[in-house]
């Protein structure tokens, strides 16, 4: 009998397994620098792991903004490409939305690279709105040099009901 998917809170010990899968899950792009261990140390209560048959198949690293008391921020969402289209990303986001609502947060923000068109489409399907930017690629607005030169980002926001 096939085991069900298990959605659980993240733990600091998840950092190593996340680092192992990131390049493969992002098609060879090495984005591991974007998920330092401190995120799992300090935001484990708002970050989640999806497992199937004891193996991590998705994660969301997210937190409640300390500077913007009405907002939550989804910093990184990853799903094993073999599990795309099975609702894992949606379930991870929905769990974070639930935490946001429980803590009086009515807006969730996120960002992605404009080259990650699958992520842009996914966020739009999840009901996120695109923020204006100072650049545009294929009709998608982005902010130039978001974190450093050459690091363009598409910003999203979603109002929770």
Short synopsis of the structure:
The protein has helices spanning 15-25, 37-42, 88-102, 117-125, and strands at residues 5-9, 48-52, 55-64, 71-79, 107-112, 129-130, 135-137, 140-142, 154-159.
What does this entry look like structurally?
- The protein is an alpha+beta fold and 161 residues long.
- The chain has two domains: 1-105, Gcn5-related N-acetyltransferase (GNAT) (Aminopeptidase, 3-Layer(aba) Sandwich), CATH 3.40.630.30; 109-161, no CATH class.
- The chain has four helices and nine strands, in the order E-H-H-E-E-E-H-E-H-E-E-E-E.
- The strands form two sheets. The protein has a seven-stranded mixed β-sheet with strand order 1-2-3-4-5-9-6, sandwiched between helices. The protein has a two-stranded antiparallel sheet with strand order 7-8.
- It is globular, with a radius of gyration of 15 Å.
- The model has no long low-confidence stretch (mean pLDDT 95).
Name of the CATH first level of the largest domain = Alpha Beta
Instruction: Please give the share of residues in helix.
Output: 25-40%
Number of helices: 4
What is the typical, i.e. mean, pLDDT? 95
Quickly count the domains.
2
Q: What can be said about the biggest beta sheet? A: 7 strands, mixed
Beta-strand proportion:
25-35%
Which stretches of 5+ consecutive residues score pLDDT under 50?
none
Instruction: List how many beta strands DSSP finds.
Output: 9
Overall morphology? globular
Just name the CATH architecture of the largest domain.
Answer: 3-Layer(aba) Sandwich
- What would you give as the CATH superfamily of the largest domain? Gcn5-related N-acetyltransferase (GNAT)
Radius of gyration: 15 Å
Terminal CA distance: 38 Å
SSE string, helix = H, strand = E?
Answer: EHHEEEHEHEEEE
Briefly note the CATH topology name of the largest domain.
Answer: Aminopeptidase
Strand order, sheet with most strands? 1-2-3-4-5-9-6
Classify the secondary structure makeup into a structural class. Answer: alpha+beta
């Amino acid at each position: 009998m096939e085991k069900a998917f298990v959605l659980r809170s993240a733990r600091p010990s998840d950092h190593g397994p996340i680092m192992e899968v990131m390049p493969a899950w992002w098609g060879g792009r090495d984005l591991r620098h974007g998920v330092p261990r401190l995120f799992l140390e300090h935001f484990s209560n708002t970050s989640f792991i999806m497992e199937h048959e004891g193996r991590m198949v998705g994660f969301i690293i997210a937190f409640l903004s300390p500077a913007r008391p009405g907002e939550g921020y989804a910093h990184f969402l990853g799903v094993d490409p073999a599990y795309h289209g099975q609702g894992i990303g949606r379930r991870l986001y929905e769990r974070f939305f639930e935490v946001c609502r429980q803590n009086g947060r009515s807006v969730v923000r996120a960002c992605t690279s404009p080259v990650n068109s699958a992520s842009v489409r996914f966020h739009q399907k999840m009901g996120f709105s695109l923020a204006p930017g100072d650049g545009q690629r294929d009709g998608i607005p982005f902010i130039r040099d978001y974190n450093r030169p050459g690091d363009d980002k598409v910003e999203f926001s979603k109002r929770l009901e």
